[in-house]
Write a structure and sequence with these properties.
There is one protein chain. The chain has 120 residues and is α+β, with helices and mostly antiparallel strands. Helices cover 20% and strands 11% of the residues. A three-stranded antiparallel sheet has the order 1-2-3, with no helix packed on it. The longest helix has 15 residues, at 85-99. The protein starts with 28 loop residues before the first strand and ends with a helix.
Length: 120
């Protein structure tokens, strides 16, 4: 098994984050929807959650459909260590699939694996 010593503490780097959608795209965040936001749909409030990734490719934030930040253990935007397809999978996706987002993430391994194989 891989050693993922920084996985649960990755979000200490996920700063600064905007507190609202106001001008979010003007400060460098790109909206990800559908398949690209599939891991952040566990806790919803009236519709699909919306994920934004900063143009640096590292910082993420997730909003409920009512524009409130979703900081639940299962859906929170997470800091990305990887900067390419392979390194992003190895450093970010694989640890999430095996361990969830935090010690308090209530999703199971099987639930996370199902999300990984879903197609748009």
């Amino acid at each position: 098994m891989h050693n993922f010593p920084n996985h649960y503490s990755r979000n200490r780097y996920n700063k600064p984050l905007p507190s609202s959608l106001y001008n979010i795209e003007k400060i460098g965040y790109i909206k990800y929807e559908g398949f690209k936001a599939r891991y952040h749909q566990n806790n919803q409030w009236g519709g699909e959650n919306v994920k934004f990734v900063h143009e640096d490719g590292r910082r993420e934030i997730v909003f409920y459909s009512n524009e409130v930040v979703n900081n639940t253990y299962e859906d929170v935007g997470t800091y990305n260590f990887g900067d390419s397809g392979v390194s992003h999978y190895d450093l970010d996706v694989a640890p999430y699939l095996l361990l969830g987002n935090s010690l308090y993430d209530t999703t199971t391994l099987m639930q996370r694996l199902r999300l990984a194989v879903q197609a748009e």
